[in-house]
Amino acid sequence: xxxxxxxxxxxxxxxxxxxxxxxxxxxxxxxxxxxxxxxxxxxxxxxxxxxxxxxxxxxxxxxxxxxxxxxxxxxxxxxxxxxxxxxxxxxxxxxxxxxxxxxxxxxxxxxxxxxxxxxxxxxxxxxxxxxxxxxxxxxxxxxxxxxxxxxxxxxxxxxxxxxxxxxxxxxxxxxxxxxxxxxxxxxxxxxxxxxxxxxxxxxxxxxxxxxxxxxxxxxxxxxxxxxxxxxxxxxxxxxxxxxxxxxxxxxxxxxxxxxxxxxxxxxxxxxxxxxxxxxxxxxxxxxxxxxxxxxxxxxxxxxxxxxxxxxxxxxxxxxxxxxxxxxxxxxxxxxxxxxxxxxxxxxxxxxxxxxxxxxxxxxxxxxxxxxxxxxxxxxxxxxxxxxxxxxxxxxxxxxxxxxxxxxxxxxxxxxxxxxxxxxxxxxxxxxxxxxxxxxxxxxxxxxxxxxx
Length: 452
Known about the structure:
Number of strands: 25
Number of helices: 3
Distance between the termini: 24 Å
Strand content: over 45%
Low-confidence stretches: 436-452
Number of domains: 1
């Protein structure tokens, strides 16, 4: 959420980027009523910039296969997605220390380094004749998905003051309730589709696992595991001026700081799935699978048994155990925020993913440059980013008092580039009086001085 996460008024919506941010927030208390972020991006399936079906979007009409295009090129394909819904949460500041508590529902998915020919079969089906009768060799690729509830506690404080320069630090500790988890790691998969109905498997080295409804159940939000995670952050302000945060100071043209530098670790943690959790190993087997295109999978159990049966003539032999641990989409981030004037800012943020373990969801890396206009009442920002350091995105975000609305990916709408994903975030919140308890009399500045 680059359009709001770097704001001095981000509050609850900035903790995920850097938990140290609330140590100098300009009000005593903020209550997050509801906020959320929906994100999806891939580098394979897309709508061309000249042929985006905006009419169908407006009519909510169903999209057809022929409406899409695909990048049928040799580089491996990647896809990422996430959903964040943050419920009632609060941050509170007192002098040089701040506290926060939050409750969220999160979902994350990633597919990385998927071979282009395998992506094509996934998209077109086994009846894509140009790829039939070819002995394909797949390089290593990974899939991961998580759904979990998160309850966390944040503490941040000023840890150093030297003249007008200050340093703040913060940490968030989260308890995680795992609801669903899936992983697949493949280091080798050699195969050939003789035709749409006959699959030849010449060799494989695949491990996968899942903790999801196993047969006909549909409850993906049932608790199946537990875990923990933490975020760490530090920020340093050059020429920090606390008086600039007070109501009415915008007319004095006083900058809050010259430069704010930040460094943070994000989503360092795990979830261990123990209930209805299974893991499988497929190694060095050959098989012929006739009737592949007409095989019906009723549920996850039928998928597991079908692969095991065709590879080992035993529907249960591939199961390697129960229970597994998955790692969250960890990352390290650096932020630099330049106050050009008291109201105009320029932010540069880099997020680099960290893959700690093979059973994990991977976060997309990116670099973002975000100019913004910021006052207590109104804020507008224009996040410009390179997703995976390669694909340009342009967005727009807006804050007015207690409401936030934004996207980091809106450039496809005027046709600046192809549409290969979506991004949307929002927030409803309530803020108390400003930090030093200065209040306006009724009728002179209203009853929400934090946004004066």
